[in-house]
Amino acid sequence: MIRAGGREGGSRPAAGRAGPSRAAMKKPDGKVVLLGDMNVGKTSLLHRYMERRFQETVSTVGGAFYLKQWGPYNISIWDTAGREQFHGLGSMYCRGAAAVILTYDVNSLQSLTELEERFLALTDSASADCIFAIVGNKSVASCSSKVRKQVRAEDKMCFETSAKTGYKVDYLFETVFEMVVPIIVRQKAEGPPQTVDITDYKPAKRTKSGCCA
Amino acid sequence: MSVKAFKLVSAVEREMLMGDKNYINIECIECCGKNLYIGTNDCFIYHFLLDEKISTAGKITFAATKQLHKYLGLKKPVSELKAASALTRLLVLCDNTITLVNMMNLEPVPTGARIKGAVTFALNENPVSGDPFCVEVCIISVKRRTIQMFMVFEDRVQIVKEVFTPEQPCAVAVDGYYLCLALTTQYIILNYNTGASQDLFPYCSDEKRPIVKRIGRQEFLLAGPGGLGMFATVDGISQRAPVHWSENVIGAALCFPYVVALDDEFITVHSMLDQQQKQTLPFKEGHILQDFEGKVIVATNKGVYILVPLPLEKQIQDLLASHRVEEALVLAKGARRNIPKEKFQVMYKRILQQAGFIQFAQLQFLEAKELFRSGQLDVRELISLYPFLLPTSSSFIRSHPPLHEYADLNQLTQGDQEKMTKCKRFLMSYLNEVRSTEVANGYKEDIDTALLKLYAEANHESLLDLLVSENFCLLTDSAAWLEKHKKYFALGLLYHYNGQDAAALQLWVKIVDGDIQDSTRSDLYEYIVDFLTFCPDQDLVWKYSEWVLEKNEQVGIQIFTKRPLEEQEKTNFKPDDIVSCLNKYPKARVKYLEHLVLERKIEKEKYHTHLAVLYLEAILQLKSVTTDNCTETTELLFKLRSLLQKSDLYRIHFILDKIQGTDLHMESAILYGKLEEHEKALHILVHKLKDFHAAEEYCMWNSENRDVQYRRRLFHMLLSVYLNPGTSDCALVMAAVDLLNNHAAEFDAALVLEVVPDSWSVQLLSPFLAGAVRQSIHTKRMTQTALGLAQAENLIYRHEKVKQKGTPILLSDKKVCQVCQNPFCEPVFVRYPNGGVVHTHCAANRHLNSNTTHHSSSSSNKT
């Protein structure tokens, strides 16, 4: 999904619509990771934002990611699997992340407590100046749930969204991206990235080549 | 969802290996170039040469010919084989010892160099030493939690480093200084140079066999929880989403863009580009899956098979054939680096076009458009889907092989009219968009003709816009189509655009006359008039002038009157011809003459007289019909008067003759005025019309641009008419008084006083008298002022003169004339006011030759 930036929310024509597939094409400049218990709607949130629609999804296996153009930067957004089975992978996904979106289900207090008990620890591997956003998904704008009171609503990095209706989904991601950009700029300024740019790669001498035998 | 990405081809049959000895199992394989090595559980190494054969049908088969087999004499299975082709060495792991044997004859190196105590080993494919005749080998040692790095040369080995791990390692892969290790409970990255380690993720190696596979520079593929194939870089970051294998995956290999995995029953193929499973091949009892320089080999205990990748193009075509556009495009893009650039671009364009047609057939027009655009589709491919849209003359032939499976739109929509309409609407907008872009280059005719046809068929308003702007519609094709759809007005526009104005007019006239039906324009008549007005073809204008005037004289005359002025002057639209042609159309004739006389201000007596006569006739005609003054008469009268007053060109006597005997007194007064017979005129105004105001006005306008004397004469004349002793009408006397009082300035007071009857009181004439006195004083003072100014001026000149006389001029032999530069021989000379002194004859010559008279005019002569 290529977007010229800015905050307008219209979806682009089809050629730009490529799911996780396009990920391999461009090198991301920053990483945003969605964490949270299973079935809180991480995939749906991402799907709603990228594809502009809601669709029942199956339980995510392992993880998936999208590449989003935000101004001049490519931001990769990782959707992780909430299932206990894949819990061990979380810390690898979070490594070097510029932002982590901790997601819970506003109808499940358990999913909120899980965030602290299970998921917060995973973010230790994230970038030192990583941004955290707390998102209560499955929000019904009109009603107020018990869980909502647990989260300090005045905190500006706390969101309530609904992937189903699209309520505040764009707002969530765009707010996060706006805050991620300075981190990317800083990281770029701090010298060469840890990862090696393969496009610069000059083939090394291969030991296993037949010609010199 | 499946793609046929690979084909399983047998390479080595079991008979070739073991014949009927069933206890022999394949333990490991290695493939290097054409050399295939197989290690068995009974301590043999087999060497085969693999020959790839491609049948005429494109089918690939492999023929393995056995070269050698070698018994290592240890009664232990050969657990791993790795070739180092640069050294022509084969590294053989058997009984925890790595020995070096010659790749060709399988003989151990004479030095007996070996690495002892290895559980398993890996070659560093991204070596750090830079020595081409050295292979870096990493082993998991039999010692607890120990990894050792070796340099292996042709006939010796050298330990480089030994590192310890927090847990027992059970699988390893190397890239540069980075070791990717599967430990008992987790995967880690370990930099053996710095000792830095990076946890990747937990994994229980006791429960499931870990997989550590280097897939490229600094990137590894690992077996993760839940049958995930996880990607990890040496920084401990995952840059690709995981692929989802089955839980009991045994081995994995990479063949871009696919990750191939092996389990008990299947070989599965996932794309690294979208992480989707693309293909499943049933394969029982497999236990080895490895890739060797792009060749994926899979083996059971008894036989060796090769997974032959199908050409990417074929795969892409298969995907397109099953309408999986997105996947096809992803694969095509992913293939970019595997295909030469030029070839890729051609291929990719074609794929985009095909994908576009697939989206089009599903009525996904937005997507289709984008694909057509990026695929630089020859628009005619799309147009040709629509029956009859391409011009018959078009040389277009659809590309071969075809980009889609449809014969035409009918087949595509299966006759669904609604779909058909949508498709047509799409083509309209698409063609409209591309027609002005470079996409249209070379086939503008085809595009515009198709667009015209679509517009005409759909009764679309843009049809007219298309035809009146620059377009490339082919005449014959378009004309037939427009006729078929009864778009006669548009057809006329088409003719006009193609320079066939006669045909266009013929059609339009028919529409107006109701011979053919086309309601496009309700004001078609006005349109035709306008068209003729700007039509450069005179014959055509003449031809249709009668028709136009017949319909409406007032509007129709515009074809002559509204023509661009410069054109009127240049061409043969001679006013005389037009006027004579207009004889039948009196209203038009008046309009035209008005145009000539009033607008173009043509100064020809003929037109002026003619127009005046026409006005006059019309007025008389109207007057004979009705007695009361209708607005038309008033209007005409106004026009006539205005003409008679303003124009000096008409034949006054002629008009006067015509006017005699009618009640058009005002007009005859004007005419008398023109003849300078003011007395007559004023007489009419005062006595016949009794319109004193008009009489005053008469004096005013008749004396316009004349001197004061003339005006005075007129006013005095009027006064004397008022005071004519023959009449003693009270009204006239009043008028006279008013005249004097209101226009005191126009009279010579002295003369007036002579004429005024003695009986009039001073009171009566006081405004006049006051005005006259004031005027007189004013005149006196003005004169005095003028006199004063003149005297002052005179004084200035006298001053000048004195000044000139004041300075003497000395003339000597040394002075030379400024003109001829000769000395003065006589005392006579000419001096210019600027001081220049010249001979008299020089001055005289100069007088003749030049016009610089302002010098000499004031020259003085002195002796």
Automatic annotation (TrEMBL), chain A:
Residues 11-23 have a biased composition (Low complexity). Gene3D superfamilies: P-loop containing nucleotide triphosphate hydrolases (3.40.50.300). Keywords: GTP-binding, Nucleotide-binding. SMART domains: RAB (SM00175), RAS (SM00173), RHO (SM00174). One of its GO terms (molecular function) is GTP binding. The keyword Heme does not apply. Pfam families: Ras. InterPro entries: P-loop_NTPase (IPR027417), Small_GTP-bd (IPR005225), Small_GTPase (IPR001806). Residues 1-26 are annotated as: Disordered. Residues 1-10 have a biased composition (Basic and acidic residues). PROSITE patterns: RAB. PANTHER family: DRAB5-RELATED (PTHR24073). Belongs to the small GTPase superfamily. Rab family. This is RAB20, member RAS oncogene family.
UniProtKB/TrEMBL annotation, chain B:
CHCR repeats lie at residues 563-727. Residues 23-296 form the CNH domain. One of its GO terms (biological process) is autophagy. GO terms for cellular component: cytoplasm; membrane. InterPro entries: Clathrin_H-chain/VPS_repeat, CNH_dom, Vam6/VPS39/TRAP1, VPS39/TGF_beta_rcpt-assoc_1, VPS39/TGFA1_Znf. It comes from the Eukaryota. It is found in: Cytoplasm. Its main location: cytoplasm. Keywords: Cytoplasm, Protein transport, Transport. PROSITE patterns: CHCR (PS50236), CNH (PS50219). PANTHER family: CNH DOMAIN CONTAINING, TRANSFORMING GROWTH FACTOR-BETA RECEPTOR-ASSOCIATED PROTEIN 1. This is Transforming growth factor beta receptor associated protein 1. It comes from Strix occidentalis caurina (northern spotted owl).
